[in-house]
Amino acid sequence: MSYRTELTYALRLRNLDEGTIADIVQEVDAHEREHGDPRDFFGPPEAYAEQFPARPRSRRNLAPMYVGVALGVAWLVGVLALTASGLLEPPFRRDAFALWPALLLMAIGMVVNVVVLRTRPLRFAPR
Q1: pTM for this predicted structure
Q2: Cα(17)–Cα(60) distance, rounded to whole angstroms?
Q3: Which of the 8 DSSP states describes residue 89?
Q4: Membrane-spanning residues where (predicted)?
Q5: pLDDT along the chain (127 residues), means of 10
Q6: Which residues have C-beta within 8 Å of that of residue 48, sequence separation ≥ 6?
């Protein structure tokens, strides 16, 4: 992975706004054009990102994870309610039928959250 991509991801994990991230990445890009490998000057991307103060997490950034967890809990409650009322009789153990899909939905929400943070394109701030 490129230094630029790793740095962008590390800065997003620190919850910096996109304009600040764009400025930092542009500075690194300019240094790379003039002097070569930015690792020699700035060090590892994670270490360079730690120089910038982290901001508190907004709930908007965690939306995919919250949706996945909510869907998982809804699935679990729904299946348990239907089996308790006798409307649903799975051909295998009720607990396994309810639990594994719920955990899968929760895990998908968490994975989507990480993928969105890592692959979202960097929007440069207008100058």
Answers
A1: 0.53
A2: 13
A3: -
A4: 65-85, 97-117
A5: 90 88 94 92 94 78 76 82 74 62 80 74 51
A6: 7, 10, 28, 42
Same domain for 97 and 70: yes
C-beta neighbour count of 91 within 10 angstroms: 5
Cα-Cα end-to-end distance for the chain: 28
Number of domains, the chain: 2
78 Cβ contact partners less than 8 Å away, ≥ 6 residues apart: none
The single-letter code of the amino acid at 71 is: L
State which amino acid sits at residue 70.
A
H-helix segments, 1-127: 3-13, 18-35, 38-42, 45-49, 63-85, 94-119
